[in-house]
């Protein structure tokens, strides 16, 4: 059972709920530090939505904490309206099937400006 009251969990919860779409990734959207994060950014950019990102390489507490928070072992991790969607493989599958675009539309995610 995970500790949902840890400071890291509280911070992650605030981050996840701050923006409609949040990507926990290695690096930044301009300089992704792994292929999976780069693919996740490309998918989000192609969807044309506004999103926030968190560079887990800059914060070890978040890097470990997000894996517990989502019960998902890998990074990147995508959240839409506070809900965990998945990693880059799931994002790619959903995108190719049109499901990610549908989810973003249903959740009324704001377009990128």
TrEMBL record:
Lineage top rank: taxon: Bacteria
Alphabetic keyword roster: 2Fe-2S, Iron, Iron-sulfur, Metal-binding, Redox-active center
GO MF term set: 2 iron, 2 sulfur cluster binding; disulfide oxidoreductase activity; metal ion binding
SUPFAM superfamilies: Thioredoxin-like
PROSITE patterns: GLUTAREDOXIN_2
One Pfam family cited in the UniProt record for this chain: Glutaredoxin
Domain Glutaredoxin: start-end pairs: 21-85
Binding site for [2Fe-2S] cluster: 34
Coiled-coil spans in chain: none
Similarity remark: Belongs to the glutaredoxin family. Monothiol subfamily.
PANTHER family named among the record's database cross-references: GLUTAREDOXIN FAMILY MEMBER, MONOTHIOL GLUTAREDOXIN-S14, CHLOROPLASTIC
Protein name: Glutaredoxin
Organism: Allopontixanthobacter confluentis
């Amino acid at each position: 059972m995970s500790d949902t009251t840890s400071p890291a969990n509280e911070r992650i919860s605030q981050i996840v709920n701050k923006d409609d779409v949040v990507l926990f990734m290695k690096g930044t959207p301009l300089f992704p530090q792994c292929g999976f994060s780069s693919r996740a950014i490309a998918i989000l950019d192609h969807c044309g939505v506004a999103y926030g990102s968190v560079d887990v390489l800059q914060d070890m507490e978040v890097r470990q904490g997000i894996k517990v928070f989502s019960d998902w072992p890998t990074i990147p991790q995508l959240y839409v309206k506070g809900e965990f969607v998945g990693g880059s493989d799931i994002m790619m599958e959903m995108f190719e099937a049109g499901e990610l675009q549908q989810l973003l539309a249903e959740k009324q995610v704001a377009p990128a400006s």
